[in-house]
Each structure stands twice: as structure tokens, then as C-alpha cells.
Amino acid sequence: SRSIRLAVIPGDGIGPEVVAQGLKVLGSVLPSDVKLETREYDLGARRWHATGETLTGVELDSLKQHDAILLGAVGDPSVPSGVLERGLLLKLRFAFDHYVNLRPAKLFPNTATPLAGRPDIDFVVIREGTEGPYVGNGGTMRTGTPHEVATEVSVNTALGVERVVRDAYERARSRPRRKLTLVHKNNVLVHAGHLWKNIFDRVGQEYPEVTTDYLHVDAATIFFVTDPGRFDVIVTDNLFGDILTDLAAAVTGGIGLAASGNINPDGTFPSMFEPVHGSAPDIAGTGKADPTATVLSVALLLRHLGFEAEAARVETAVAEDVTARDGSFRTTDQIGDALVSRVLAGSVTG
Ligand code: NAD
Ligand code: IPM
Ligand code: MN
């Protein structure tokens, strides 16, 4: 019989609140012959205060044994900024070689958007996940003096860029519109920018059926707002992808709906699924967190593990729920319950 060994990292702030709903929906959609084994990892602010640890080597080895990881969010105002983000979240992305950070952006019917004319938005950002300015290559000199210098060097390797660009072409090829846009800033960041553009063009010769486009990142932000329908698949570096995907969330119904998968396409390591948003300390404990982003991340997780029909059922339940919203307040738990009901109803009718 089939089984899923799932590692769960609820984390900080609203992380545990939204992850509870994600697990509820996962439990409701899985066929009865699939055995779901979850193991929860106590990682984040509480643990750091208690032991000073962010993620131990033993835990990393243990996490490696799972089929996938579901993560809520990490980061807390009581912990110096960066300690948990780097020591836990980025450590996992790097250690498990999550070089494809998959972030779909889709505007569901009737969903509120600040954009005029309610355009059709259905694109996916492929954000590189293991390189760029995120590697921690830098430092400070003359610390504490008026002449202090801080550097943060972006690392871009031909192998690292080519593998994510290739993945993006493959995804673009399998979508109806077959369009791939590279976003960078090669008019200023000439070293990294030309490496990306050269590889993008060279690999593109193997995909004549894919239409290609290039945009500088500043111009890309214009089109996210004025003409988002022009995008199908976007490939970009780690930092640009981070910024663009919060913007993409904001124009497709809000950060509470934005899902992501940190994918290791080679299958050597478990992939990790998490909402795009953070721990939202401003609303933690109030019941205001929308768990939909986590639920949609569960759908990405299901699809990654080969449960396509179940992934589609979760996505349908979300589309129905989001489309039916009338603006009245629902708690995190109520939204989770509504999604479970729709998933169960979907199993009867379809
Ligand atoms: P954030 O995404 O946590 O919050 C930004 C805004 O969006 C806040 O107003 C918040 O209330 C709102 N929001 C976020 N998720 C929501 C949801 N599900 N429903 C409704 N509203 C939601 O970003 P931030 O404030 O920049 O960061 C807070 C902390 O989270 C920081 O420590 C940051 O480093 C961390 N962070 C972690 C992750 C992650 O674990 N993947 C991602 C982003 C930020
Ligand atoms: C995200 C977050 C993280 C990132 C931070 C918390 C390290 O903003 O997942 O988008 O920048 O990748
Ligand atoms: Mn981000």
C-alpha cells in the first residue's frame, strides 16, 4: 500500500495556525489506502530560546528520511533578524538543494485584485533557490566605525543557472502558451546578468517551441501591475524572485493565497512546501491568518508526490471557496473547515 512520510515544521507566528489547516485538508483528501505518517519538528523561536539551536545535523539527517516537508513560517521579533531565516529556512533550502522554487500566481474568478480591468493572471515564477545574494558570501569591515563597509556578494554558477533555466523551459513547454520570460538586471549587474542571459539563450535553442522574452526586473514590476497577462513562466534569480512573488501575491488576491514549493527535481532530497508569506507576527494568535496559501502548498506537495487527482481536488476546493467569498470575516479554522467540506463534497461528485 502507498504511504507518505511527511515532516512537519510548523515554526513561528501564524505558522502553526496555518499548518494545522493544511494537515486537516491533507487528511481529508487522501484515499483511505494511503498511509500518512507525519513527524513534527520543534524548530523555530521557542527552540532557539530554549537551546540556542536552529537546526542540528541530527535533525537534518532525520528530515532527509521523509518524502516531503511541510513548513509554516519561521521568524520572530524576539529573535535577531536572520538567525532563524538563515539558520533554519535557508539552511534547509541549501542542504536539500531546492534549486527550483516554484511559485504559481493565479487570479481566481471573482477574487479581489487592486488591478484595473481584472486581467487574466495565470503565471508561475521559477525562482532559483540555492544561489544569488542568499548564499551569505560577504561580510563587514571596520565595523562600528564611520568607514564601515558591508558586502553581500551574489554567487551565480553556470551549473546552478543552467539547471533552473532548463527546468523553466521544460515547464514552459508543457503549458498551453509556451512562453518563458527571463527577469534580471543585466544592464547593471553585468557579471551575473550576462551569465543568466547567455545560458538562457543557449538552452533556448533546444526549445524552439518556447517563445522567449527578457525583462529588466524594474520594468517587470511595471508589467506585473499594468499587463500581468503577458506572463506565462518567469525564471529569475533568488532575490528578484523573492520580491516579485510577494508582488504577484498582492495582485492575485493577497499574500494569504500564495503557495510555493522548494523543489529538488533530482529527487535526491525531500522537497519542501510552504506558503510564500512569513510568520506575520502582527496577526499571530488572532485567528486572522488565511490558511489558503498553506492549503495550496499542500496541493503542490500532493502533485509532487504523484497524487495529481488529489492535488486537483484541493485546488478546486480552494477556487470554489475563494470565488464564493463575500468579504465577511472567517477565522483561520473556519476557512480550513470550509475547505475540508468542499474537498469531501468534491470526492462525492467527482
Ligand atoms: P509576512 O509575510 O509575515 O507579513 C507581511 C504582511 O502580510 C503582514 O501584514 C501580515 O499580517 C500579512 N500576512 C502574511 N501572511 C498572511 C496570511 N496567511 N493571512 C493574512 N495576512 C497575512 O512578512 P514580514 O512581516 O516581512 O515578516 C515577518 C517574519 O516572517 C520575519 O521574521 C520574516 O523574516 C519572516 N518570513 C518568513 C518566511 C518563511 O518562513 N518562509 C517568509 C517571509 C517572511
Ligand atoms: C520567502 C521569505 C524568505 C526568502 C526569507 C524568510 C528567508 O521571504 O520565502 O519568500 O527571502 O526566501
Ligand atoms: Mn519572501
Report what the structure shows:
The structure is a single chain. The protein has 11 helices and 12 strands. 45% of the residues are buried. Strand 1, helix 1 and strand 2 (35-40) form a beta-alpha-beta unit. It is globular, with a radius of gyration of 20 Å. The protein is α/β, with parallel strands linked by helices.
Q: Please describe the biggest sheet, giving its number of strands, its sense, and whether it closes into a barrel.
A: 10 strands, mixed
* Intertermini distance: 23 Å
Q: What is the correct CATH architecture of the largest domain?
A: 3-Layer(aba) Sandwich
What is the CATH first-level class name of the largest domain?
Answer: Alpha Beta
Q: Count the strands?
A: 12
CA gyration radius, whole angstroms: 20 Å
Helix-strand pattern, N to C?
A: EHEHHEHEEEEHEHEHEHEEHHH
Fourth CATH level, the homologous superfamily of the largest domain: Isopropylmalate Dehydrogenase
- Count of separate DSSP helical elements: 11
Globular, elongated, flat, extended or rod-shaped: what is the shape? globular
- Tell me, rounded to a whole number, the average pLDDT: 97
Helix percent reads 40-55%
Strands of the widest sheet, in order across it, are 2-1-3-12-11-4-5-10-8-9
Quote the CATH topology of the largest domain.
Answer: Isopropylmalate Dehydrogenase
Beta content comes to: 15-25%
Structural class based on helices, strands and sheet pairing: alpha/beta
Stretches where pLDDT is under 50 for at least 5 consecutive residues are none
The set of bound ligands, ions and cofactors reads: nicotinamide-adenine-dinucleotide, 3-isopropylmalic acid, manganese (II) ion
Site (Important for catalysis): 134, 185
Pfam family, one: Iso_dh
Protein name: 3-isopropylmalate dehydrogenase
GO biological process, one term: L-leucine biosynthetic process
